[in-house]
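FIELD: query
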Amino acid sequence: MAGRTRANAMKIISVTGLEKKYGNVQALKGISFEVGRGEIFAMLGPNGSGKTTTLEILLGLRRHEAGKIEYFDANGQIGRMPRVGAVFQGRVYYESLTVRELTKYYRDLYRAPPHNISRYLDMVNLKEKLDTQYSDLSGGQQQQIAIVLALVNDPEVLFFDEPSSALDPQVRLKIWGLIRNLKSEGKTIIFTTHYIEEAEALADRVSILSKGELVITDSPTNIVRRHSENYTVEFSFEEDAGGDVFNGFSNVWFRDGIYSFSVDAIDGDLMQALKEISDKHKLSRISIGKSSLQSVFVKITEEKGA
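FIELD: result
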């Protein structure tokens, strides 16, 4: 889990009452949050929750109908937008160019010193690919090169839209390691994700969004503590068991064929209740584990009807 940033860390971005509409659809419903200087901040939510829209507004790529965005300098004073870098899904580059040509193009564009590129290419171990066309790189290598290009101008804040989406687990872990290294250099990282484990592994703080609303912002540990009891029970049935099976249970939610609820303790009453269910209905799965960000996320988004 990421090293946590102090709750009173100096902020670099403040967002207040942000609203965005697409026609008659209210994509953002007055969300507010702050990002601390030097922290890793995640926006976690299902598809359509407003994550990418928020990211694009912060970068100045989309207009918003209402709300305020403020940026702060190293002295805590309101200032201009800091130097930023961004890595988006569906990125578009000159695919016929080699990695060497691409990096030179970006370096010239930002008038950046060569050592900036060289250092980050070393970090992702892709110097041997300098003369390879971008189109011939694997998906993971393309993502790593995209990160290198976003770092050419030595940004203070780096934005990622789904940094490890569609990558295999080994490459995903490599990207996570790179993000942690960038934090250790003092950079502020803001990323969107629908991977709960990604937010839990990387983020100092997480904002959970659902249908354009910001439900909570806090550290993953505090979110679990505030919104869940100690244990989560999950079970599914081989056949529809009917609604009466949940008599005596509260806050049962359903997702992807699995019923879940949270309890303070694993005691005799719980075990007896589960035994009575299994006597009446054939279970295909049952598990009891410590509550996690995943169980809380499912509970929150189900309550919001996401």
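FIELD: remark
The chain is about 30% helix and 30% strand.
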